[in-house]
Amino acid sequence: MTIQTHILGYPRIGVKRELKFAEEAYWRGENSQDEFLEKAYAVEAANWQSQVNAGLSFLTVGDFVFYDSILAHTVRLGAIPKRFNEASKLNQIDQQFYLARGRAPDCTDVAALEMTKWFDTNYHYLVPELDPAQIFNADFSDLFRQIERAKKYNKPLKVVVPGLLTFLYLSRVVDDKKTTDAPNLKKHTCECSTHYTDANTNIATIKFIDALIPVYSKLFDDLAAYGIEYVQIDEPILVLDLAPEWQSAFERVYNLLQRRDSLKLIVTTYFETLAANLNLAVNLPVAGLHIDITREKSGDFFWKKVIDQLPTHKILSLGVINGRSVWASDLVKLDEIVKTAQKSLGERLWLSTGCSLLHVPVDLKSETIPDEIDGKLAFARQKLDELVALASGYIYINEKITRAADKAFDLVGQSRLENFASRFKAQHAKLNLPLIPTTTIGSFPQTAEIRAARAAWNKGNLSDADYETAMKQEIAYTIKEQENLGLDVLVHGEAERTDMVEYFAGLLDGFWLSKFGWVQSYGSRCVRPPIIVGDITRPKAMTVKWIQYANTLTDKIVKGMLTGPVTILNWSFPPAHRTRREVCLQLAEAIRQEVSDLQDAGIEIIQIDEAAFREGLPLRRTDRAKYWDWAVKSFKHCSSSANIETQIHTHMCYSDFKDCLPEIIAMDADVITIETSRSGLQLLEVFHQQSYPNAIGPGVYDIHSPRTPDAEDMRIVIDGALKSIPAERLWINPDCGLKTRNWVETKAALTELVKMAKQVRKELETT
């Protein structure tokens, strides 16, 4: 009996990040669009060839996009916000880049679309903005061209399309009547934010269902005309705590969409089980359903409940291969599941990855793997082979992946003894900072010189001493430029760091760093998540030498820069033998030791970044209490060695924090810096509504966009912040670190930041 195999998506960056380099060369004007497309389509072709070589039943088409799938779908639908009015001069490729970056050839710079995390992953999607009277002018011609390119492989094709309801759920409505013609993100007002984290979300975007159904119907008719038999409709919001209005919308939408016998819709879910949406999902009038069994709790066997309730004519695609883990699958264990499912489903059983393989590195073949983990890993390409092995019954025992669980680890978490009011008073007296002090988030541009020195050092062509000298020169330059700019609290710039997590992983025991294990974070931004392979300990101080050196170069305060335990965990691949709680507490102890050493070295402000603090939050509310318990406990433990006068900062990146303010308050950082420029001032309003008691530094400009803001743009954020935050507890800073920007952009933006901060400070001091 044949079992059909397919995947939900494949990494689109290329084995050696070919897409990233092609995009960035195109943005710099070094390549034409045709040259860019030639390189991009080579990656696309390589992805399809990998699927053919592995022997998958279907080629997946539509998952390969240049920046982000939701962004590509937004442009295909013609849902371009009015502030991008010049986008009409561009083709769809440049329109995508314009919306994502705020910059395009021969167009005025504008604020880019908001960017936020894709469910509980470190991948970022671009949030669609819909006008209250949105009209969709769809054009899917690029998707059809992609289908034509795929046909030459002579394999059955399965096309991927974002689900109508998931697209609307992740969108927001922007009321342009409340804006001016100026292209400032701070001047557009969101009517609602239907972010997935809010189970009782405003249902305003549901009103676009009737406008989109004809668009989807036409698309499906066209796909059928192209000879497509199966369409993968991604509806991951079916794993969330959906409000009744959204549940009802699913029934109505799919009753209207599934009207053609020649085209079979497979509704696809991932990242969790269906839970309360089980009955709704199995009874949708579609040809099949995909579920992710890799996220089931141990012993739950929710997939059996799906099989029991699935109508007997429907396909069930079982996501058996973990698309978010780098560890090899236990094929013997999975084979038992497959055989049980096959007895009930017969040829209606398909096998797949739990989710898209976008979230794991591309291929192991270029890696030199240590003996202790050899045979235990599987990247995207290897997961294809695992999938086909399960379907074909070619099962082998991998003894290398079986091991006894380590001895349980626990930690009695510690906290700072003094309350914020006492600490703030002591810190104010010692630090002697001006009103609304200015600072940056930590990193400064990673220049070509820095990368060249690091590459030479890694190859053995530069000695340790010469590399240290080169990094100190970069640190000295960064300190000097910050002094020239007039910033109040300086940073050393992180020249010696490749990545905020990878750097610490390289200095802690218990990690393995791959050479080519890149994963897309957003657009052309790729990260190389470390792999946790054992117990985590800190053999020696990690940052003290660099921060202490920077501190000798200036009379101003230099922040110590650390990455927090929750972020290191969430941006690494966790071990197969430890709970996330145990790993996080081990990390917290290592960072606590580093805080103590920095403090002993005379560092007065220490920033412990928790950019991913919310990222690992379970998607369902009933599962969140345990996560928050150990996440907050871990942060408080790593800051517990700070004395009353040492000021602890933390930074949080692009995410939705409105449902976790109590936990952020419980972290008890002296200063929190947050993103506000892309998401407007709504987040600050939430902090105000919940009476956040500590100090806040709202990001006054978006560092991910190459456009240079002017001081007046920043003034809008500052004035908005002052309505919610007392001036004595307000800091001014960019949204995020500056490593991806160049020095020209950085100096221009920070000049405006300091200029406006000084102007506002003067006004406050004279009133």
Automatic annotation (TrEMBL):
Looking at the record, the residues that make up the Cobalamin-independent methionine synthase MetE C-terminal/archaeal domain are: 436-758
Superkingdom of the source species: Bacteria
Co-factor remark: Binds 2 Zn(2+) ions per subunit.
| InterPro entries per record | Cbl-indep_Met_Synth_N, Cobalamin-indep_Met_synthase, Met_Synth_C/arc, UROD/MetE-like_sf
Q: In which pathway does it act?
A: Amino-acid biosynthesis; L-methionine biosynthesis via de novo pathway; L-methionine from L-homocysteine (MetE route): step 1/1
List GO BP terms, alphabetically.
Answer: methionine biosynthetic process; methylation
- Does the keyword Amino-acid biosynthesis belong to this entry? yes
Domain named Cobalamin-independent methionine synthase MetE N-terminal: which ranges? 5-344
What's a single GO MF annotation on this record?
A: zinc ion binding
Taking the record's annotation, the residue ranges forming a coiled coil are none
Where along the chain is 5-methyltetrahydropteroyltri-L-glutamate bound? 20, 122, 525-526, 571
Q: Which of this chain's residues are annotated to bind Zn(2+)?
A: 651, 653, 675, 736
Residues engaged in binding L-homocysteine: 441-443, 609
Q: What class of enzyme is it?
A: transferase
* Keywords on record: Amino-acid biosynthesis, Metal-binding, Methionine biosynthesis, Methyltransferase, Transferase, Zinc
The role this protein plays is:
Catalyzes the transfer of a methyl group from 5-methyltetrahydrofolate to homocysteine resulting in methionine formation.
Family, according to the entry, reads as follows: Belongs to the vitamin-B12 independent methionine synthase family.
Protein name, please? 5-methyltetrahydropteroyltriglutamate--homocysteine S-methyltransferase
What organism does this protein naturally occur in? Acinetobacter stercoris
